[in-house]
Write a structure and sequence with these properties.
The structure holds three protein chains of three kinds.
Chain A: H1 2-17, H2 19-46, E1 47-53, H3 58-69, E2 73-79, H4 83-91, E3 94-100, H5 104-110, E4 113-120, H6 125-146, E5 154-156, H7 169-200, H8 202-207, H9 213-243, H10 251-275, H11 279-296, H12 309-315, H13 319-333, H14 337-361
Parallel strand pairs in A: 1-2, 1-3, 4-5
Antiparallel strand pairs in A: 3-4
Helix pairs in contact in A: 1-9, 2-7, 2-9, 7-9, 7-10, 7-11, 7-13, 9-10, 9-14, 10-13, 10-14, 13-14
Chain B: E1 3-14, E2 17-28, E3 32-36, H1 43-50, E4 58-63, E5 66-67, H2 72-78, E6 79-82, H3 94-104, H4 113-123, H5 136-148, E7 154-157, H6 166-181, E8 185-190, E9 201-206, E10 209-214, H7 216-221, E11 226-231, H8 235-244, E12 250-254, E13 257-262, H9 269-278, E14 285-288, H10 293-303
Parallel strand pairs in B: 3-8, 3-9, 6-7, 7-8
Antiparallel strand pairs in B: 1-2, 1-4, 4-5, 9-10, 11-13, 11-14, 12-13
Helix pairs in contact in B: 3-5, 4-5
Chain C: E1 4-15, E2 18-29, E3 33-38, H1 44-51, E4 59-64, E5 67-68, H2 73-79, E6 80-84, H3 95-105, H4 110-123, H5 139-150, E7 157-161, H6 169-184, E8 188-192, H7 196-199, E9 204-209, E10 212-217, H8 219-225, H9 231-246
Parallel strand pairs in C: 3-8, 3-9, 6-7, 7-8
Antiparallel strand pairs in C: 1-2, 1-4, 4-5, 9-10
Classes of the chains: A alpha/beta, B alpha/beta, C alpha/beta.
């Protein structure tokens, strides 16, 4: 045990000596979170839209005004024919086109239902999705204000955001960003640590000593758990202070789950470190191979339910998906452990799996 | 006398390259044993196998009676190893490095201070300096201290003096002699032929094979040829002309002189003088000379 | 007539408060083999870098191959060759590719490149190995090839930084044969080494201790002056004297 602590002390010394890296490790997540957060909110505030009003009546004029005055949209132009829609998108700035069918007001009054078409620019599917949802929300609000009659009025399509009623994109993003940043930073930190010793030649001395693989592997992970945990706290704090993302559930539970996820990511980093021989390769793997799945296959940007089955299956072997589920559940829904014990167990499983595999893959000799 | 390291028919290949070809030798307890040979001779491969860091393709090796494959864990507790490349933590201070290596071997600096005192005391004034900021000679002293701090029974030093200046090299060898006096078996490798004389026994190694194992004195005695050292005003032309001399076995530059080897009786001092004056050399001197390890090494290389 | 191809007057190089080169003054004659010795950290590498036009001196007057070190660094680079033990050839290129690359960066014409490459490979007996990767050839070949490549553009001076480290004794001597030959062809050779017997092969030797030149003369004169049997003793005497002063 003394040997293990000696090793941990050495690791801490390395970390605190290298203050530049330390700065990046702590600075980068904060900067990224803030940038990402603002980019997303800005996009939604400034979204330009066009209207193709085939009815041109009082109701459509009012709805258009509602959308324009919502703060999310800015009316860019009025269109006259369907043909102009594509041209409007091609020119670039238009994110959404709202099409009112002919005789809109009359149909709404007589048939109790009218059609409005919301066309999003699907080249940016995520934004498009959010914008369509915003617009739908505005339409529904408008209908509610008209709803004096017994039989409710209908405008199709309908969509609703259960736990994000204010339709704030940043609420969806903070949990996802948290997962991504913690995953990358943590995996990166440890993936470099063993390969660095291999490159410097110091691994040769460690191997020729009585240190056991388990001591080296765990000794490498241990100090970084603290650093990454501080990172997690910073991110949660920033999410709350800057973007007003609430923590509706237990903070202790949230911190525990973050701790678990960090350990998982650090263990994954160590595994990468054990099977590669250069820092360069380790960094490539942690950045490229982890970044894309974390962003794309975790439900961070694209909802898992909408994916093809094969990709869904892939998502289920990506640890970030579980973590995102867990923190959304705690932060936005205020759920307790009872609702997320399955995900928690899976994260514990991943951690143990990576640690054990690392010890097994750890080469007790050179080459 | 008890055996410290025993190696039988050890071979190791990297792809097509034969790094070690069936080498065998044994080192006695408390011996200072040197491997003399150029880069690429297989020294580092051999040291890594003995330090349990590499697996041989065939053959056996034991260190203090422990098998390098089966009992690698036991060996790792009792050896001190200094790799060819400086391998300490550059971002840690002198003292932090030493403390770290003491701890992972389950000991403390205080416990074995006596053993490293002589070496470590020379760098102790700089103990808060980062290892990366030390000069070549000091780095080497720190590396040796770290390899010694757990009181190993056997020391493996892979080219400890490479790239180190002549002054530091000499100091280093003096330290090794004193360590040997403490009963530690030391196996050291070097590309500097002149360091052979400082070992109890040497193995001359080239291209993965041991050409000769003996005491430095016996290596020199077994030199099969006669040797003259020849001087001339123009050393470059001297070398060329001597190579053309009938009966010359080999001609090599040694400092300002040339060493001319030949089969006993094939050449005479007068004959060489005569030949050189005919070829127009001035300030010629020809003297019989005792071969040194380098003469022997080159002779063995040419035979192989 | 003796012409000096390198002239150094009062060269000072400081890194912060650390003086790496402390008023060096020396000349290197055209066509000579000049040994540049010194303990680790004595300031050799710093001085070589300045002479090769890779870094600026803090002060002093320097001319290399007739060009000013401050204002004509590009000219200097075209007129010198450089080889070090640590880096010289690309491991992942073949022998021929390395030759072609170095010849090309010195602006040799295509025809010239092919000609010289053939001559060079023939001289080193590497014709059959022309398509071998550098990483697959023995160290001795590598060093000989690296030297040949360093002088492929007929430089006025070639700088050799520990060219023979770790090389076997026979190859080491073959290497020195090549150095002699280059010197005979008028190339000035500026060489550093840790092998003291190699110091004896030089026409003149300078020994640096703690940033200053402690001695500069022919090996014979140095041995006489310090009453030493060989250059190793000269070196030890000079370096030790200095250490005592500091202590």
């Amino acid at each position: 045990m003394k040997r293990f602590w000696g090793f941990v002390v050495k690791e801490f010394l390395h970390i605190f000596r290298d203050y530049r890296t330390l700065l990046i490790l702590f600075g980068m997540p904060a900067v990224q979170l803030i940038l990402f957060g603002f980019v997303i909110t800005n996009e939604i505030k400034d979204a330009r839209f066009a209207v193709l009003d085939l009815s041109k009546d009082e109701t459509t004029r009012q709805i258009t005004e509602k959308i324009t005055s919502s703060g999310y949209f800015r009316l860019d132009r009025n269109l006259n024919t369907y043909h102009e829609i594509e041209a409007a998108f091609r020119e670039g700035d238009i994110r959404l086109v709202v099409v009112f069918e002919p005789d809109f007001a009359r149909r709404l009054e007589k048939e109790r239902a009218a059609h409005v078409q919301l066309i999003g620019d699907a080249s940016d599917p995520n934004t498009a999705n959010i914008l369509v949802n915003y617009a739908t929300g505005i339409l529904n609000n408008y209908l509610l204000s008209l709803n004096a009659e017994a039989i409710p009025l209908q405008i199709i399509p309908e969509a609703r955001m259960m736990y994000n009623q204010e339709l704030k994109g940043v609420f969806m993003f903070v949990p996802g960003l948290m997962a991504m940043l913690l995953m990358l930073i943590s995996a990166l930190m440890t993936s470099l640590s063993i390969t660095r010793e291999k490159e410097l030649g110091t691994m040769e001395l460690l191997l020729a000593s009585p240190l056991r693989p388990m001591q080296i592997v765990v000794g490498k992970v241990f100090p970084y758990v603290f650093l990454a945990f501080i990172n997690a706290c910073i991110i949660i704090l920033l999410g709350w202070a800057v973007f007003g993302v609430p923590v509706r559930g237990s903070i202790a539970l949230l911190l525990f789950e973050s701790f678990l996820f960090i350990s998982m990511a650090l263990s994954l980093g160590i595994l990468i470190s054990c099977i590669t021989n250069s820092q360069q390769l380790a960094m490539m793997i942690s950045l490229v191979a982890l970044m894309l799945p974390t962003i794309l296959l975790s439900g961070f940007i694209f909802p898992v339910e909408n994916m093809p089955v094969i990709l869904q299956w892939l998502c289920h072997i990506m640890p970030p998906m579980y973590f995102i589920t867990v923190i959304k559940s705690i932060m936005l829904k205020g759920n307790g452990l009872f609702f997320i014990w399955k995900e928690t167990l899976i994260l514990i499983g991943f951690t143990l799996f990576f640690i054990l595999l690392s010890v097994k893959k750890f080469k007790i000799r050179l080459a | 006398m008890a055996v410290s390291v025993d190696v039988q028919n050890l071979s190791k290949n990297y792809g097509d390259v034969e790094a070690l070809k069936e080498i065998s030798f044994s080192v006695k307890k408390g011996e200072l044993f040197g491997f003399i040979g150029p880069d690429g001779a297989g020294k580092t491969t051999l040291f890594r196998i003995l330090a349990t860091l590499l697996l041989a393709d065939s053959g056996t090796a034991t260190v203090e009676g422990f098998d390098v494959v089966k009992d690698y864990r036991k060996i790792r507790k009792i050896i001190g190893y200094m790799p060819g490349r400086f391998s300490l933590y550059q971002d840690l201070s002198v003292e932090e490095n030493l403390t770290f290596f003491a701890t992972i071997f389950g000991t403390t600096i205080e416990e074995n201070y006596n053993l490293v005192k002589e070496i470590y005391s020379q760098i102790e004034p700089f103990k808060t300096r980062k290892a990366g900021k030390l000069s070549g000679g000091m780095k080497q002293k720190l590396a040796l201290s770290c390899a010694l701090i757990h009181k190993p029974e056997v020391l493996f030093l892979d080219e400890p003096t490479t790239g180190v200046d002549a002054v530091s090299r000499q100091e280093f060898w003096e330290m090794l002699k004193r360590l040997k006096a403490q009963g530690i078996s030391i196996i050291v490798s070097t590309p500097y032929m002149d360091e052979a004389g400082l070992c109890d026994r040497v193995a001359l190694i080239q291209d993965g094979s041991i050409m000769q194992i003996s005491t430095p004195e016996k290596v020199v005695e077994s030199y099969p040829l006669e040797l003259y050292t020849v001087d001339s005003a123009d050393i470059y032309r001297l070398l060329h002309d001597l190579k053309k001399l009938p009966g010359a076995a080999s001609v090599f530059a040694f400092g300002q002189s040339a060493h001319l080897s030949f089969q006993k009786g094939k050449l005479s001092r007068e004959g060489v003088l005569d030949y050189l004056s005919k070829t127009g050399h001035k300030e010629v001197q020809v003297k019989p000379v005792k071969p040194n390890i380098e003469d022997c090494f080159m002779e063995l290389m040419q035979k192989g | 007539m003796i012409t000096n191809i390198i002239i150094v007057k009062d060269l000072v190089k400081k890194f912060g408060s650390f003086v790496a080169n402390d008023h060096l003054t020396f000349e290197v004659r055209k066509g000579e083999i000049f040994g540049f010795l010194g303990a680790n950290g004595a300031g050799k590498t710093t001085a070589i870098r300045i002479l090769c036009g890779l870094s600026f001196p803090t002060s002093g007057e320097l001319s290399v191959a007739g060009y000013n070190v401050y204002t004509q660094r590009e000219k200097i680079k075209q007129n010198i060759g450089y080889m070090s033990q640590k880096f010289s050839l690309y491991d992942d290129l073949t022998i021929f590719e390395n030759i072609r690359f170095y010849a090309a960066i010195y602006g040799l014409s295509r025809k010239d490149i092919d000609n010289r490459a053939e001559i060079l490979m023939k001289k080193l007996n590497l014709e059959d190995a022309r398509n071998k990767l550098i990483r697959d050839i023995p160290l001795g070949w590598k060093q000989k090839l690296a030297f040949s490549v360093a002088i492929i553009h007929d430089p006025k001076i070639v700088f050799l930084d520990e060219p023979t480290g770790g090389v076997d004794p026979i190859t080491r001597r073959q290497f020195w044969d090549m150095i002699y030959e280059a010197a005979r062809n008028g190339i000035t050779v500026f060489v550093t080494t840790h092998y003291m017997d190699e110091a004896e092969y030089c026409d003149r030797v300078s020994i640096m201790v703690d940033g200053r030149i402690a001695a500069l003369d022919t090996p014979v004169a140095l041995r006489e002056k310090y009453q030493a049997r060989n250059m190793n003793e000269v070196f030890l005497k000079l370096a030790r004297a200095q250490t005592k002063e500091v202590a």
